[in-house]
Amino acid sequence: MKFKFGVDTFIWSENYGENDLWIIPKAKELGFEVIDFAISNPYKFPVKKVKEELDRAGIDCVCTTTLTDETNPISPDPKIREAAVNAVKKCIDICNELGAPILGGVNYAAWGYLTKKPRTEEEWNYGVECMRKSAQYAKETGCVNICVECVNRFETHFLNIAEDAVQFCKDVGTGNMKVHLDCFHMIREEKSFSGAVKTCGKEYLGYVHVNENDRGIPGTGLVPFEEFFTALKEIEYDGPLVIESFDPSFEELSGNCAIWRKFADTGEELAIEGLKNLKAIAETI
Prior knowledge:
This protein is an alpha/beta fold.
């Protein structure tokens, strides 16, 4: 089975906009089959120009987003929860227009929102209620799968492991909810890479980010990619495997993600070397 590798726009740009359209043909030129648009603000995303450039370059795409304190589905404030649903719906509109089958990322809570307590039943119910509205909208307007990304304990207290994410999808119950796994977060939270994949299975694993444990060049650190790829092959995962990292020069993201040092001369070099490494590992599976 052949894996489909992709690259995230965060490799080059912190806030993707009209000045970043060149990234689309660049990703294709570097040998990636998919580009992941990291949508920082869905209300400012240049969807029409992006669509034109995608058609011109001939590359597939997916989308991810991270919600904010003003668009937090697990907030106790009903107005903020309503704003969250509206923001996710706007991202779904973008996916529909671009032909992106996936909306991944921290789309179920504000990224970085921590109460300093374990997740509560009330928060779970808020999250399920909001996501059900968004997922139902996705079903009514197209065929986008919403994939919820398990992230580490320092970025959310809501979904850290595959088991909880699968349960969240089941509780939403719309049939178009899946799990987004990211190796960077998995190595901190999961007991086993293959175990997490099998917990999701083909039914619930919808999207994968292939990042190294330090967010450096994939294939140069502690992530057991051979084990991970073997498990993906066993469940017949056929979605994209996308490299995502951030540059320490980014004004906001580097601080939020605690990126204090360079892992390559440029983000582009990280992506090129990572793709080479991951392809080599995949060929042995």
